[in-house]
Amino acid sequence: MRITGGAFYLLVFGLVVGAALSIYTGAKPHTTKAGIIIAAISIATMYFLYRAKIKVGKKLNSAPVISDAHCTKTCFYLSFILLGSALIYEVFQVPYIDALGSIGIAWYAFKEGREAFKKVRTNAMSCSDDCC
Q1: pTM (2 d.p.)
Q2: Contact 81, 104 (CB under 8 A)
Q3: What is the helix, strand, coil percentage profile of the chain, to 5?
Q4: Which among 115, 104, 112 has a CA at the least distance from the CA of 79?
Q5: Strand, helix or coil at 128?
Q6: What separation in angstroms does the CA of 54 have from each of 17, 42, 58?
């Protein structure tokens, strides 16, 4: 869990630095069509994967499978952030919306990292329905 939490915090650092550099240098994406396609596929996939994991986790009475399902749900939400920022940029050419999308994803990654370190501190290695 420490490695997972550390990896999430490293991701947060990279996303925030990348967003700041993007804003500072005025960098703009050439297109966000690939992001739109990837996010749409991810949303469709993650929703069904989340539902299937919850079903299996409940049948097996498995906290780790249910915990993994909730992490999949987080990926589902992250895909919406990507899709929203990519669509807004592609349609309206709003400057720095991609940087704001990165900050939104960083917020979720920070939340997950904090949760991982909290589990280490409290020895709570199982997951409740609202942990992720």
Answers
A1: 0.76
A2: yes
A3: 80, 0, 20
A4: 104
A5: coil
A6: 35, 18, 6
pLDDT tens for 36-95 read 999 999 999 999 999 999 999 999 998 888 878 888 888 898 999 999 999 999 999 988
Cα separation, 85 vs 38, in Å, equals 13
How far is 121 from 125, CA to CA, in rounded Å?
Answer: 10
Other CB atoms within 10 A of residue 72 CB: 20
Cβ partners under 8 Å of residue 36, min gap 6: 83, 86, 87, 90
Measured CA to CA, the distance from residue 58 to residue 116 in angstroms comes to 22
